[in-house]
Amino acid sequence: MADFRPRIVAFLCNWCSYAGADLAGTTRKKHRADVRIIRVPCSGRVAPAMIVKAFEKGADGVVVGGCHPGDCHYVSGNYHARRRFYTLRKLLDFMGIEEERFQVTWCSAAEGDKWAETVNRVCDLVEGLGPLTTFREMGEAVSSEMREIKKVADE
Amino acid sequence: MARIGVFVCHCGSNIAATVDVRAVAEAASRFPGVVHSVEYRYMCSDPGQKMIAETIREKDLTGVVVAACSPRMHEPTFRRLAEKTELNPFLVEMANIREHCSWVHDDRGEATAKAIETVRMLVEKVRRNSPLEQIRVPVTRRALVVGGGIAGIQAALDLVNAGVETILIERSPSIGGKMAMLDETFPTLDCSQCILTPKMVELSQHPLARLYTYAELDGVEGYVGNFKVKVRQKARSVDHDKCTGCGLCIEKCPSRVPSEFERGLADRKSIYVPFPQAVPDKPVLDRETCIWFTQGKCGACREICPVEAIDYEDADEISEHEVGAIVVATGYDIIGRSLYGEYGYGKLVDVLDGLQFERMCSASGPTSGRIVRPSDGEVPKTVVFIQCVGSRDDSKGRPYCSKICCMYTAKHSMLYKHKVEDGKAYVFYIDVRAGGKGYEEFVNRAVDEDRVVYLRGRVSRIYERDGTLFVKGADTLSGHQIEIRADLVVLASAVTAAEGARELGQKLRIISDRYGFFTEAHPKLRPVETNTAGVFLAGACQAPRDIPDSVSQASAAASKVLGLLSADELVREPLVARVNEDLCTGCFACEAVCPYGAAERVKREDPRTGAEIEKAYMNPGVCEGCGACLPVCRPGAVDLMGFSENQIYSEINVLTESFKVEDEAK
Asked: How far is CA B312 from CA B245, B255, B339, in A?
């Protein structure tokens, strides 16, 4: 476990958190390099399925960065996102993904520090949880079972 | 077949010092679809751009990834470049390997691995980009200004003087707003009406201005550049085409009611012109109090009118107008009287609000400029001014500063001392906030020259005993409770959003903050725009604001409108939602979440049954491209151009492979 490096995927709102991450760069706020960033127009654009897909595809943690409540560039996108993610977290637990692996942060374009801290915090947290295996193993098991069923059905 | 070009920038040493750019270019050359991959010192420089342009042509590229700084920095640069080479600009993406990578990491290996993966994700994305055309919408060169106070007047004047036909609507019978009520203005003590009325007249006489007074905005449809607005002209019962403004009807009218303009300190008639310099200078009939309308008799005004302008049958009229842009300048009100029972507000007649005191000071006001006690007409020898009544008071739900009160209280105290030289003026304050050109000096002048006594503390109670007012408060600097025997008390009541502002905002699809003030698109960088394209804000409808600020904001809003109306067509980024009608089930979940009202219903014929069904249509002129409609669309019929499902999922999908790259690197 000592050499485990978490793999984090971040969906960042173009107007706030993405720009906040830019600001972290401009102000040279060093942070861990384990995050991969996907730029989206709004946190409200992020469908729960995208987060699950990221976990399936190898992410050990997922972060969504949106505008502070009340500050959404598109009026209400972050509120929709917040409601969706609240439900999703419960569902993740059911799916064998620890809730903590999925984090939401409200980080404005002025909060470069906050973004850098969020990256470090989430990396540490996911590092503590270890690699996401259960969910993917279960996925593999289901897939092979489906293949079996198909094979039987085909015969 | 995709033919992608990857261009990795060194950004001098900004990227190259931390990221092994050669390794990135080398790795990218092996990604599926990539036919060309190079690194270069400065991609944004002339030679860099030239190289990209030449490569696009030579290699006949179908997509470009520039791995350099943030797309927020140079995406427009490289998209413009693509346009020149006839590659659709939306086939260019940027991989952010500077702000998000080289500048925030120290370890060269880690940073390089991250850069490679970032490029990999963007290559996958760009392979799924589709060429998009700029959306062009026609523009109506006409503007609407809602509200006829100083902000609305200034915005309208700027617009008409620039040659744009402008409709201004004002719900009261005259333009002029709150500024028309003021006596003198801080920090110069120049006469408010003397500087305002010339503007009112100039606007009313301008050939491009159309004023609708005693009118309201009834409805708004359409979108930026193409609004259709309905204006309700309330029934005036006076035909302004016939009326000469002689005023005989007003003289004859037997019905007296408290004047709104004089804040209840004087009466007006039921048929009235709110103040002598009103524009238009012709009366309206207030049907709520008119004897003809309430009791069915009288008719004095109709009898006396020499030109038969009085029309009791007059009805509200709705007119429709097409405008390209809207400026909202609906101003403010002050906090209701009932909230401060402890200050006897509204019960004790010698307790006035700031606007009442203005009217009293005004030479054209109810007392012709004499400061007197409303109760007995005596000149008050002691006046107590109380600041922050309702402002900065969390317990009353208004933690904000009303901004103008410190200055107008200083002004009031000076006006009083100038008129009653042997009088005593006390001001209770929390802090004196005098930020502005000449403002601090102005407050100091009140203290030093006019000997106004400033007491730091709140007033707990005002009560009356034997016809005298007592003001009980704390002087927190000396630490003493004090009680002042006052002849008159003036409250600096909190500035609130104008009555009906929230409803107006809903019509215009602009948002209000929790206090009812309209919210600007960005607090710093887009202060006069709203989140609804084509709707702009001016003056105190956005936040408490004094005259200089309101005027500058009005001019700023006007210049934004002029910019918008300067072209025949509006060009918008085509990053908008589109509906696949074959998949749309007509559930309209999109309509419920769309903050802009872009989701429209279109009628279609069911191919099987022939019945009429409804499908969603995203109006590209209205859609702002947030993508909120995507996660709620169950059949997956909506997609967002530029951030499509395919594009984002491809970025996610490539992660598995990317992470393998990382593993191998270790």
From this structure: 18, 16, 39
